[in-house]
Amino acid sequence: MLSLYRLTKAITFNPITKMKTITRSILFVSIAALLALSSCSKDDDPKASKTELLTAKAWKQTKIKALGVEGEPDACDKDDTYTFKTDKTFVQDEGATKCDSSDDQTTSGTWKFNGDETIITVSTEDSGITISYDETIVELSATTLKVKYTIFGIEIEETYGH
After folding, report:
1. 132 pLDDT more than 70
2. Are 118 and 137 within 8 A, CB to CB?
3. N or C: at which end does the chain have fewer Cβ atoms within 10 angstroms?
C-alpha cells in the first residue's frame, strides 16, 4: 500500500507530468475558444442572392468604357436611375436632366437572368416592337453593378453604383 501511495505522490508532484497537464489544459481551452469565436463569424450569414443584390436599390451609372477608353457618363445620364424589381420588371427614370427633352420621363420593361445568372436580358417595348438585349454581368455586389455588351461590333462596359 505504501508503494502505491509513493507512486501516486511521485506522479502527482512530477514537474513533467504537471507541465503536460497544464499544456493539455491550455490547448483544450484554446481550441474551445477558437471554435466559439469562429462560430460567430459573419461568413455563416447567408449571402444575398444576385436577385437580392440587383433589386436592393436603384442604380446610377458611374463609369462607361468603350473602345478601351474609360470615362464618366454624360451629365444628362448621371442622374438617371435604373430600378430592378423582384417581379422581374424594371423602370429607368431620366432624372431631372434629360439628354433629349422629347424622351419619356420613364421607360419600363422586364428583365431576367440566364440559368447561371451571368447574363441579364433586358426587354422593353417601343411602338409595339419589343427590343431585347443581353448584358454580361462582370461584377454584382451590394454596391457595384458592372455589365458589358456589344453593339454594332463595339464592346461597351458600364459601371453602376448606389
Report:
1. yes
2. yes
3. N
Tell which residue, 94, 126, 124, has the closest CA to residue 109.
Answer: 124
Q: What number does CATH give the domain 50-161?
A: 2.40.128.280
Q: What is residue 122's predicted lDDT score, i.e. its pLDDT?
A: 96
Candidate from 9-23, 45-59, 129-143 with smallest mean pLDDT:
9-23
The residue type at 136? T
Domain borders along the chain are 2-44, 50-161
| Contact residues for 104 (Cβ-Cβ < 8 A; gap 6+) | 94
Could you tell me which of 64, 59, 98 has the C-alpha nearest to residue 81? Answer: 59
Q: What is the pTM of this model?
A: 0.70
Residue 109 has which C-alpha cell? Answer: 420593361
Distance, in Å, from the CA atom of 78 to the CA atom of 72, rounded to the nearest integer, reads 8
Cα separations in angstroms, 157 against 44, 47, 78, 161: 33, 26, 16, 14
Query: If you average pLDDT over every residue of the chain, what do you get?
Result: 82
Whether residue 158 contacts residue 68, with contact meaning beta carbons closer than 8 Å, is answered with: no
Q: How far apart are CA 126 and CA 55, in angstroms?
A: 24
Q: Are 93 and 80 in contact (CB under 8 A)?
A: yes
Q: Where are the alpha helices (DSSP H) in the chain?
A: 2-13, 15-38, 50-55, 75-78
